Description:
- The complex is a heterodimer.
- By secondary structure, chain A is α+β, with helices and mostly antiparallel strands.
- Chain A has two helices and three strands; from the N terminus they run E-E-E-H-H.
- Chain A has a three-stranded antiparallel sheet with strand order 1-2-3.
- The chains are: A alpha+beta, B alpha+beta.
- At the A-B interface, helix 2 of A face helix 6, helix 7, helix 8 and helix 9 of B.
Amino acid sequence: MQCPKCHAPMHTYNRNGVxxxxxxGCRGIFLDYGELESLTRLEAQWGGQQVPPPxxxxxxxxxxxxxxxxxGAPHGGHGGHGGHxxxxxxxxxxxHMLFSS
Amino acid sequence: xxxxxxxxxxxxxxxAHGTTGEACVCGEGAGVxxxxxxxxxxxxxxxxxxxxxxxxTPPEELAARLAVAERLPGILLPPLRATPAPLHDRLxxxxxxxxxxxxxxxxxxxxxxxxxxxxxxxxxxxALLPHPLPAxxxxxxxxRALARLRAAGPHPAAPPVLRAWHGLPPWAxxxxxxxGPPRLCHGDLHLGQLVRTPDGTWLLIDVxxxxxxxxxxxxxxxxxxxxxxxxxxxxxxxxxxxxxAAQGPAVPPGGADPWPCLDIPARALTVQTAALAIAxxxxxxxxxxEVEQALxxxxxxxxxx
Lengths: 101, 305
């Protein structure tokens, strides 16, 4: 393939098992989709470190982030969409529960 | 109508109008049965409410609890008479009628008022009260709910509830004193425990479970509903933030995580509510609904974290 920047031919070489294209002219490097992540992961393993997990998605708008216990509902306590609240009319059974011992 | 209900209806009418034959113009508010359960029978007559307390209620404990309600008129609805009256095998107390929270509109629930009342109740120094107070009965009620679950017979949802119960520390199962400094607690907070006076002030009612203990127990029902995904984060936050703003002592102030303080009582209330839900479902020969199942699922997760 040709370098998208200087249009010189590129050659393929292997770095830690990942195929990389490098330009013979400007020495620029082209990575296919996912190859940068593969390299980062390999380098972290090389250094004996874990790659940090991707950041958690932010809470949906309108739900304040309030702490909840680990045994809580998977979504409900954290403002997700799995709870029984927030969708129109409250469940009748919970309406009763609000008022009973 | 049971003999007790009939006698209590008469007592309520007499309390409202006296024995002099004054005409009753209370209309629809005359002789209304507000509750008729094993633990309480409650009749309204006009501006008066008469309550027959559970059988075997210790008279001296009820008197001590009534005295607290007399002493804290801006927090608890004060009784009309300082001492309970015997009626059949019950003790009867008399109260002014207050407007309850609208059961058909729980979205209008006064979460801020509930939180503020609890914070003020919890800040009351028990040593300043006229009598030594019995223990708050929250854990005893949880233990009673578990007894009802066991008496209901086997049910496929019972094992995780029983496991979660046995995972609680002894104090939360009414088998020992609560840790921490004893505070004045309501003992059975839910939205049916608030009434509005004619001037619009919300007050707490029902002193049957009032006593000293861990004040986090009074926050634990809303906390459990929130944790189980039933109460919205907004409602829970309104309640908790107001309690903190009013310097309620059950949770650390400011933005600190309240769950180290709430965890055990909220587990206990989840287990209690789940146990009663199963017992009621067995009695009615019906399946659990999705709200009840959410409580059972939470009990199941308690065994895994």
